[in-house]
Amino acid sequence: MKTQPAWINKSLFPFHSQWMEIDHQHLHYIDEGAGPVLLFAHGTPEWSFGFRDLIQVLRNDYRCIAIDMLGFGLSDKPEDGVYTCQAHADRFEKIMDRLALKNVTLVANDFGGGIALNYAIRHPENIASIVLFNTWMRSLKDDKHYSGPAKMMRGWFGRFLYYKLNFPVNVIMPAAFGDKRKLTKEIHRHYKEALPAGERIAAYAFSRELLQASDWWESLWSKLTVINNKPMLIFWGMKDKFVPPYELENWKRKLPSAKVIPFEDAGHFVQEEKPEEMVREIRKFLDTRKEQ
Length: 292
Description:
- This protein is an alpha/beta fold.
- It has helices at 52-58, 85-99, 111-122, 144-153, 156-164, 167-175, 185-194, 201-212, 214-221, 246-254, 270-273, 275-291, and strands spanning 17-22, 25-32, 37-41, 63-67, 104-110, 127-135, 232-237, 259-263.
């Protein structure tokens, strides 16, 4: 039976860990509280730990479920796993079915945005509302901001950076904070421990997916009208160097009815820098839905 590893600081992550078997692999998730369902989908190099401050408060009124994607967090990290965005999305759908979740509010960022929205587009009848932050869902092949670094990561040097130096955790993550003081050594340790040497294949796969998943994202982008009528809330850390503010403008054009809340002093990991503000606005957003 799987248990939480000893390196987890329970004062930071005071949740009961559970695992479910999907396609012969064990995926870790937390399922806290009761009420309307909030389902959290993370990006890289993240895991359910990143949503801890939101869930600790929101679980008082909502059922909060956060999944670790295959290869991340406390989920299995098989060398022969399939780590494409589409494969993650397929597993995400199987989890939704296994837990029999209905009337769900999705909360997603980074790579988790497209993965969660794939489900919303395929099953709009099962989605109550959507909360996004610092994510994208369009082809990046012709955008040099993404394509240049992504091409570099394809070769031996990229593999070295990811497999040997844990580049996304040790370099990208600190650089992605608007206020680097928010990434304390103890918080940072939980991201480092979750991607130890020899278990970084999924993070490296995401670096390749920046370009390789472009056609899949673009196909979803063209279908967003399917969920245009869903209540949407978009947070954005305006100091994000990696998913820059012009992506927010893309979302605003595509989803003109979405409520947008920018944070001028936050970076990519908004949930780490602005958890109290996010909780307050999510509550307000969901309360408004109840009244309608």
